[in-house]
Write a structure and sequence with these properties.
The longest helix has 14 residues, at about 5-20. A 3-stranded antiparallel beta sheet has the order 2-1-3, with helices on both faces. The protein contains 3 helices and 3 strands, in the order H-H-E-E-H-E. A hairpin with a 4-residue loop joins strand 1 and strand 2. It is an alpha+beta fold. The protein has helices spanning about 5-20, 20-25, 45-55, and strands at about 30-35, 40-45, 65.
């Protein structure tokens, strides 16, 4: 599979959504690496641990990462006072 981040994210999200309820009941708050080529899921307490589990299983990716129960792996916060000055 060619590495196109948009395609990887779409395929990974679809695979995750197929098993979302079972995963959220069994692995709340954990991280999952979705191998979009093999459609296998690997869990860990951190994104790095999920990736290591996938690599130990000889998976090469590409991977889509999700924090179980969340829309993505990380959250972004923006503070209005941190805006750059124009000009």
């Amino acid at each position: 599979m060619a590495f196109d981040p948009t395609v990887v994210a779409e395929r990974g999200r679809k695979m995750y959504d197929k098993v979302r309820r079972a995963i959220e009941a069994e692995h709340p708050g954990e991280f999952v690496a979705v191998d979009v080529t093999s459609e296998k899921l690997f869990f860990g307490d951190s994104p790095e641990a999920a990736y290591r589990a996938a690599r130990e299983a000889r998976m090469e990716g590409p991977f889509h990462f999700v924090r179980v129960g969340q829309r993505g792996v990380y959250r972004s916060t923006r503070s209005p006072w941190r805006r750059r000055a124009a000009g």
